[in-house]
Request: fold
Amino acid sequence: MSNGQSLADHITLELRADIIGGRLVPGMALVENDLVSAYNASRNTIREALHRLGQEGLTVYVRNKGVSVRRLGVVDVRDLFKVRRTLELHAINASQPLRDDQSERMLQALEATELATEREDWRAVGTHSLAFHQHIVGLLRSPLFDEFFTNVVAQLRLVFSTAPDESRFQAPWLARDRQIHALLAEGDIRAAADAMSLYLDDSEHLLLQICTPSSHH
Reply:
């Protein structure tokens, strides 16, 4: 723990990372006693961390039941995509030609996604694919937007986790991420923005289907 991070900060970040990694899924209980021993922390510290996750829209508190990982609905998905369109499309439209380090970070995320696909580790596929989109927002070079988008990514991850068949859901996106990167690398900003716009439309459509209970039958 560095840079003046409190234990509560540290635990909040770790639990959020567990959500982004797909290790904590919607509906899962976050039991205070378990967390106290897992993190060797006081009850107050754990409560503070859980409270923060609640403020970030990642957990819910139910009276007499305690805290659990949040399930997101149709309204949440629409809102998340409003944010994605605003940030990701703006990042592309405002971007300069990709610097080597920016391109490299994106390629690493794409490679990791590909390896996870070959292993059929769909949980990791979702996480690495989101990392690619974090690098897109990273083009804005705004620590505030990066921090905010990490929270958006964590909420998106919770929606992914509810997909009944994650392989069918995750499989088609890698080629499209690669295309967006290639267009950015070529400096074809307009085509990259068009590709991203279509990507977000299709992704939102699919996630809305996942969130609509009737589609499970």
User: Anything to note?
Assistant: Residues 74-216 form a domain with the Four Helix Bundle (Hemerythrin (Met), subunit A) fold (CATH 1.20.120.530). Residues 53 and 116 are 28 Å apart (CA to CA).
